[in-house]
Design brief:
Elements lengths: L15 H6 L15 E6 L5 E7 L1 H4 L4 E6 L33 E2 L5 E7 L2 H10 L1 E6 L6 H5 L22
Antiparallel strand pairs: 1-5, 2-4, 2-6, 3-5
């Protein structure tokens, strides 16, 4: 005879009745004293330079406390060699601080951050920030990237020879 109660008896969820009746309080619904909220302003192009940023309308929006941009945010100066690891050619995009300069490296990159009393106020004020860019040509394909590609070196300094499967 096959056993039908492999998982055991049904269990009642303690929060079940509250959730289905709409009386449950979710994490986002709890009031946290002295809490502020932020909403990012993101770039709408893949590569370029920020030439101007107008934050005046956002600054006067209700509830706005601060608008952080590359012009007013301060980061600790990075030690020579980039935090102890020497790099021959600058810093990788993943290691740069957000809002650290006026360069845009990818679409959706944070270019400003609006801090306000509520998330709704921050989001609304972020929509008021106007950013002008000097667009640059983005490298979007392997063929386009190959123009500036460099041959990697092996650990012992020898050049790596392309193999049959490598892009030529």
């Amino acid at each position: 005879m096959a056993k039908t109660d492999i998982l055991g008896p049904a269990r009642n969820r303690v929060d079940g009745p509250l959730k289905v009746t709409g009386k449950a309080k979710y994490a986002v619904e709890f009031e946290i004293p002295n809490c502020v909220h932020a909403w990012p302003v993101v770039s709408n192009l893949a590569k370029g330079t920020i030439t101007a940023m107008d934050t005046k309308a956002a600054e006067f929006a209700p509830g706005v406390l601060k608008i952080l941009t590359h012009q007013n945010i301060e980061f600790p100066k990075e030690p020579a060699g980039g935090g102890g690891a020497a790099r021959a050619e600058g810093i990788r995009i993943e290691e740069r601080n957000p809002l650290s300069d006026d360069k845009v490296h990818y679409a959706g990159q944070y270019v400003a951050l609006v801090v306000a009393k509520t998330i709704e106020q921050a989001r609304y004020a972020a929509s008021l920030v106007r950013v002008n860019y000097a667009p640059e040509t983005a490298v979007l394909t392997m063929a386009a990237a190959q123009e500036n590609a460099k041959q990697p070196k092996k650990n012992n300094g020898e050049k790596v020879q392309p193999t049959k499967g490598d892009v030529e």
